[in-house]
């Protein structure tokens, strides 16, 4: 099968999101300039550099009360900071609860009964029980093709690791089993791993 996205795929559901998988999930916490807290998941997310450590995520839809974007991007645009929390399988249901199209004044931490803690380096909340949290200072927000598509880049200025996830000196993903996003309504979970040496190592 071949199709041009501009012409449509002819299938019952768009296959594009199911092609680039699994995708890590950024559970992004922000604080508005009015002091309100927000928490929402984004699966167009990844690390982009080691030194200094940097990450990105993309927001691809909008709310009518947020000037062409969503609460998360609007808050970051106003304050310049955000915190990415890593989602473990055990938190799948509360993460999903925070994905709703809630009003700007809704605190998703409270809505989903997610315990929050304060970040150390930035004025922003974080998910207290997350396996890891990345405190970020926004470096760039890029508008890309599409009416509501924005990519947010940030430098990681503080990292929280949950103590039980550090095993024999490594951050062990099997200690918490990361949740990953697939296509459609599908998710998956990391339950096994293996190592490969690069040529010449």
Automatic annotation (TrEMBL):
Chain ranges of the Flavin reductase like domain: 18-173
Lineage, broadest ranks: Bacteria, Pseudomonadati, Pseudomonadota, Alphaproteobacteria, Rhodobacterales
Pfam families the UniProt entry points to: Flavin_Reduct
InterPro entries registered for this protein in UniProt: Flavin_Rdtase-like_dom, Split_barrel_FMN-bd
Origin: domain of life: Bacteria
Protein known as: Flavin reductase
GO molecular function: FMN binding; oxidoreductase activity, acting on the CH-NH group of donors, NAD or NADP as acceptor
Sections of the chain in a coiled coil: none
Membrane-crossing segments per the record: none
PANTHER family: BLR2425 PROTEIN, FLAVIN REDUCTASE LIKE DOMAIN-CONTAINING PROTEIN
